[in-house]
Every structure is written in structure tokens, then in C-alpha cells.
Amino acid sequence: MNVDYLMPYVPVAVLLGIALFLALLLPILSVSLGPKRPHFRKMQPYESGMTAVGKAQRRYPVKFYRVAVLFILFDIDIILIMPWAVALRDLGLFGLGAVMIFIAIFIIGDLWAWKKGLLEWD
Amino acid sequence: MNAESAGQLAWITLVVGGIITFAVITGFAYTTLLERKVLARLQHRVGPNRAGYVPIPRRGKKERRLLGGFMQPAADAVKLFMKEDITPIYVDNVVYNLAPMLTVMPVILTLAVIPWASSVTLFGIDYPYLAIAPGLNVALLFVLAITSIEVYGVVLAGWSSNSKYAVLGGIRSTAQMISYELALGLTLLVPVMIAGSLNLNDIIVSQQETAWFTILQLPASIVFFVAALAEMQRAPFDLLEAEQELSSGYNVEYAGMRFAMFFMAEYMKMIVFSALWVVLFLGGYDIPFINEAAIVSSADSTVVTILIAAGQVLSIILKIVFSLFLMIWIRASWPRLRYDQLMDLGWKTLLPISLLNVIVTGVMIVLAEEGVFNSLISAFGG
After folding, report:
1. CA-based nearest residue in chain B for residue A31
2. Cα–Cα distance between B47 and B37 in angstroms, integer?
């Protein structure tokens, strides 16, 4: 494997190190500098001053799941268009036609989802 | 790039990256001050003016106080460090501690690809342009990938807090972020298509050669700005912190500096998205009406090169401040959207507009490249 391909990622790795250092430093400083006076009432989850009722980690409403599924479809679409967007001058009319067919299929699916009411939020 | 070894490159990046990260974190602190000051002025208030000022004595009168409040960010930071860091009892400890880190780290990583000036030589290494990772030619793909990680911090913080407000805020903002990421991603393709490269510096050079992409692509520029506002949960899309409904959303159970880390991520995201908007649509470090490359090559002296580089850094910083001011101005002027309106705007307005924009831009570029317009002009008596 050619190591030169990985050279551009050396700075990214270093920056990841800087980010990790900061992300660890701040909570550690905060925990060690601040006072510690634990109290039962202070440790309760916040619920506008009332005692918390029931569990909070329940199932998500299904409409959020629907949005997530649509997002995955669209995001893959964008990722697949991206190589064409970079090289569209070289690919010429053939590339344009191919991508337009791809986008057309996609738009039909999107219109169907719209008509089915998948994009409605009530 | 002519680094001799990975080790040498790593050391130099540690210095350059450290300086840039430090500068952006300082910038984050002063963005909070800028926001408070500008908001205050827009509402006929003065804003924070007690912490730190430059006294100018006047004869017979009270002294004049300049730059009131410039130490406010430092005071805020000290206060947050000295607060008690409470961990509620019902939280999922590992995830609860991981979430703030996962929010801050991607924002800092995005800084890797933003170009601050054209070619410079630092410590014996020729940078093709001044960025932390200038060799990375898939810069925009990298940005897309990293901003997607951002979502995890939010949803994990909301879920692990085990508080109803936090859970609701977490899933709400997750759905919002992924909805607007589509419009954002599609709009990113437009500069890529015009410049023919994913590299941010190539996009800036392409703008220097033609015109700023805001002029060529006004709709894309506006869609990007609006989608960026929604992506980083700024007003009028700040539904996760709709105080009347959710108190403060996914970060309600956090205290002390761990709460401030979410804050920090939000404001650094403002700076990063401003920088991206500036680079993609406002010419990046390009100084308007000046041909920097011609000046550098004709003068051929180190002083001029350094001056031009400094001017470019100043130029991009001024543009970023302008963009930040725009965001604060919007916050002061617009009421918050309702959640269904937010989803409608994302899915039914911005997404079709940006998809259509991609199609039209692609068709025009390819047809121009194939010479269709030239033959049309000649066919109709050109």
C-alpha cells in the first residue's frame, strides 16, 4: 500500500488529538475545580420542580423514525451524485443523462412519499 | 506539501493546528460577547459593560469608559469552571459523559479543511494554502461526514440524561438536523460543480477567476445560509431550546463546564459554518478588487508575501464576523417557527429548491462545455 495516500490524514489525526485533549480537559477541570455538595433533591432529573414521574427513556414516536429513513435515502443519493458533480465536465452528455435518470427515479420516489403524506408533520 | 516525514508534518501541524484551534476558541468566547452586545443594541439596551474597560480620564468629569465588557467571556469561563458539576442519579453514566465530548470534537475537526490564506511557507514546509490539513482534497466530503457525527452528541445527551425534557429535545433536534442536512449537502454540490473540485482552496481560486458564487448562485447561497442556521439550531430554528416548551432541551441535565461544552460546540459551529459559507459563496480569503497572486509574483519579496497573507486572513475574519452579525441580527428579528412549519420548510421548500438548482446548474455547465450555446448563438445569426 502506498503510504503517500495517508500523508494528508496525518494533520487530521493530530487535530483529532488536540480535540480529544480539549474534550477530556474541560470536564476534568470542571469536576476538580467546582465544589461538591451532593444532595438527594439536586440529583433528581429536572421536571419543572415536581418529583419526576415514570421513566423518560421510552419509545420514540414513529414519525421521527420515518424522517430518519427518508434521510438515509436522500443522503445516499447526495453521496452518489457527488462524484458526478466533481467530474461533470469530463463525463459530458453521457454522464449528464445517466445522472438525470438517477435523479428522475429518485424524484418519482420522493413525489410518491409526498403524496402518501410521509412528509406531513401533525 | 514537501514534508520529509510524517513525524515532521505531525509536529508542525501540532503548532499550526494548536494556534488555529486556540484562535477559534477565543473567537467563540468573543462571539458570545458579540451576540450579547449586538442583541442588546438591537433592543435599545447596553449589554454587558462592567467586566473590564479602558478608563480614559476627563478633566472635571467622570472618566470615560471604553470597550466596556471585553473581559466578560473570561469572567463567564471562570464562573462556569467554579460551578458544582452535578451528575443526576438516573443518568447512563458512560453515555452521559461521552455526549459533550462527541459534540465538541467534530466541530474542532471541521477546522482542518478551512483555508485561511493562500500559499505560505511555514517552518520550511510549503503550504499550498494555509489550512491545518491542506493535503486533504476531499475536503467537502470530510465536512459532510464530520457534521453527521455531530448528531450523535445531541441524541445521546438527550437520551442518557433520562429526563423527559432532555429526551424530547434530543429527538426533536436530531430530526431537525438530519432534515436540513439534506438541503445543506445538496447545496454544497453547486460550488463543487462550478469549481470542479471538492477542495476548498480550488473553490476559492475558481471564485477569484470568475466571481463570488453568491453572485453566480444567489439561491444556493441563501439556501445554504438558511440550512446552516437550522443545522446549528440557531434562531428562528432554535426549537430544541424553546424555553416555554422544553426548558432547554437536550442539555437540561448538564451543569458546569460540561454544559458549557454544548454551548461551546454551538458557537464554534456558528464560526465554522460562517467560515464555510464565506469560503463557498463569498470568496473565502479573497480580498475584493485586488489580484493578490499578481501582486505577489510581481513584487517577489518576502515582506509583500507576508503582508498579502495577513490581509487575506484579515479578509476572511472580517467576512466571518459579517456572517456572525447576520445570524445575530436574524435572531433579534424573527420569531421562532413551529415544529411542523420547520419540517415543511426543510422537506418541501429547501430540498426541492436545492435539488432543482443542482439539476439546472449541472445541465447548464454540461451544455456550455459541449458548445451547445455557442452553436445556438451562431445558428441565430451571432
Report:
1. B85
2. 5
